[in-house]
């Protein structure tokens, strides 16, 4: 045994150089693929990288060219630092940082000049005490100011720059004689760096935070529509595969995950969009915070998609006969929900209003069909010991005649199992760990639940989804009024109908392809 272990260890050690060489050969290919993928996913990233390179080249001329260096001196490096720190991917982020940096530097320089003027006539000792006390008070007040939510959200970077610049100028003025001239030159170079950043960000292939927020909101509706459509197709598929085999890294999971993880990005984009110029010809304030509220309501709706996906992962599934019995009304409800989501996505994407009543009427009609289908099979949800074959009762019986499962049998079985387990208690801890799942499986087996209860949970989630969708519709309608969306035209309605028809054709072709493949396999 020891010889075999030593041989395996020697084989593993001898194979390590080969594994290392193989990884070294595949590393360049892996890096190149990732570089290409990042640029292919969003080509604007490549353009932004080029803009940063051009901006750094322009600002470095202040240091490289002799005539420009004689004008600004060693402070030219502050322009380079400003470009590195301020130039961001979107115009709103650049404006936020640039204006915060410029305003913070200006306020800090003005306050430092005033402090220098006040301390100039005092002696050296009193001047040191005055500067120390001023630094303490300004540092305390600036840091405490950062805890205010409004300041933290919009001007935190400006307060940091103000505190840094003020301390550099004020403390340096105690030792350096010409510190005010140095501060003025530094302010000029920072202004040059901010101007180059704003030029690159606003005039050369600008990326607007507001447009990113607008497009991402519309994409979230489409992602949820695909997730719900995938859940319904998976639940009512005609294959004999187990429903719960759907993986967590599939398109269903990715669709609602993009919605649930969007809170931070929505708030950040809305904050940066408020710094950008007005996106309309009218100078009214654009309701970017309304997008944040819509995102909150949409995430609340997205939790139903998560729960719907959880039904696919459940260990207890309704029989196939029960699922097929209610397939058509459930699919109609889901189809109406996806159509509403697609229409809302089109409304937001094209800034067009929609008909609230038309959307709600179709949803309520689909719900009525599902309700009628469930009411036509009342005995399914009461539980019985009959076989798994689902049949329609021929004669109505009173509620007192319905036999409900008794817990006495289950309790006695559990007590008997526990007594046998105590009598034959294992000595090894590994055997104890193996026996633990047996208890839960026995409990699931002995409890005589109705076969239709898993489907009842699924159907109740569909009803809850429609109820929450009403809140989403109202929020989109409020966004349309606040953002002055245009009235929908006949061409818009035709475009939505074509889009929905294409979606239906894709579903039918997918179902036909699945049926053909399944028939060939059989």
TrEMBL record:
Keyword field: Ion channel, Ion transport, Membrane, Transmembrane, Transmembrane helix, Transport
Pfam family, one: ALMT
Any single Gene Ontology cellular-component annotation: membrane
Annotated transmembrane regions: 46-65, 77-96, 125-145, 157-175, 187-205
Membrane topology of the entry: Multi-pass membrane protein
GO biological process: monoatomic ion transmembrane transport
Compartment(s) where it occurs, according to its Swiss-Prot or TrEMBL record: Membrane
Domain of life: Eukaryota
Family designation: Belongs to the aromatic acid exporter (TC 2.A.85) family.
Descriptive protein name: Aluminum-activated malate transporter 12
Organism in which the protein naturally occurs: Dendrobium thyrsiflorum (Pinecone-like raceme dendrobium)
């Amino acid at each position: 045994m020891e010889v075999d272990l030593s041989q395996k260890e020697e084989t593993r050690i001898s194979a390590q150089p080969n594994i290392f060489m193989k990884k070294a050969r595949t590393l360049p290919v892996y890096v190149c693929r990732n570089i290409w993928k990042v640029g292919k996913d969003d080509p604007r990233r490549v353009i932004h990288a080029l803009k940063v390179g051009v901006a750094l080249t322009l600002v470095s001329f202040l240091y490289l060219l002799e005539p420009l260096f004689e004008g600004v001196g060693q402070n030219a490096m502050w322009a380079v630092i400003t470009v590195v720190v301020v130039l961001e991917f979107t115009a709103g982020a650049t404006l936020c940082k640039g204006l915060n940096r410029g305003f913070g530097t200006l306020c800090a320089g003005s306050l430092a000049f005033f402090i220098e003027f006040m301390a100039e006539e005092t002696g050296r000792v009193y001047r040191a005490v005055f500067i120390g006390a001023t630094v303490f008070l300004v540092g305390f007040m600036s840091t405490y100011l950062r805890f205010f939510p409004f300041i933290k959200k919009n001007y935190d970077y400006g307060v940091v720059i103000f505190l840094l610049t003020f301390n550099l100028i004020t403390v340096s003025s105690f030792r350096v004689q010409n510190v005010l001239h140095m501060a003025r030159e530094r302010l000029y170079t920072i202004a040059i760096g901010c101007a180059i950043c704003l030029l690159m960000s606003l005039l050369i292939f600008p990326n607007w935070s507001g447009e990113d927020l607008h497009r991402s909101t519309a994409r979230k509706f489409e992602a949820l529509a695909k997730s719900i459509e995938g859940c319904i197709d998976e639940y009512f598929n005609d294959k004999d595969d187990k429903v719960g085999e759907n993986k967590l890294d599939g398109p269903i999971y990715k669709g609602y995950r993009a919605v649930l993880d969007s809170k931070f990005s929505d708030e950040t984009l809305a904050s940066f969009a408020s710094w950008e110029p007005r996106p309309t010809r009218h100078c009214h304030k654009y309701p970017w915070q309304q997008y944040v509220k819509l995102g909150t309501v949409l995430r609340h709706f997205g939790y139903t998609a998560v729960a719907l996906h959880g039904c696919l992962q459940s260990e207890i599934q309704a029989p196939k006969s029960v699922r097929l019995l209610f397939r058509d009304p459930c699919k109609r409800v889901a189809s109406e929900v996806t159509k509403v989501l697609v229409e809302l996505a089109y409304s937001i994407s094209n800034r067009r209003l929609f008909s609230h009543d038309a959307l709600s009427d179709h949803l309520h009609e689909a719900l009525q069909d599902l309700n009628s289908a469930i009411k036509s099979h009342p005995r399914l949800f009461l539980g019985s010991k009959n076989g798994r074959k689902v049949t329609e009762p021929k004669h109505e019986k009173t509620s007192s005649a319905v036999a409900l499962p008794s817990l006495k049998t289950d309790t006695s079985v559990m007590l008997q199992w526990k007594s046998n387990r105590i009598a034959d208690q294992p000595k090894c801890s590994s055997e104890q760990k193996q026996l633990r799942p047996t208890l839960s499986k026995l409990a699931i087996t002995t409890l005589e639940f109705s076969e239709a209860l898993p489907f009842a949970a699924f159907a109740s989630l569909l009803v809850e989804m429609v109820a929450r969708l009403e809140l989403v519709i109202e929020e989109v309608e409020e966004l349309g009024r606040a953002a002055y969306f245009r009235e929908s035209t006949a061409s818009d309605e035709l475009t939505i109908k074509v889009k929905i028809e294409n979606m239906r054709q894709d579903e039918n072709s997918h179902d036909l392809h699945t049926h053909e493949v399944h028939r060939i396999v059989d």
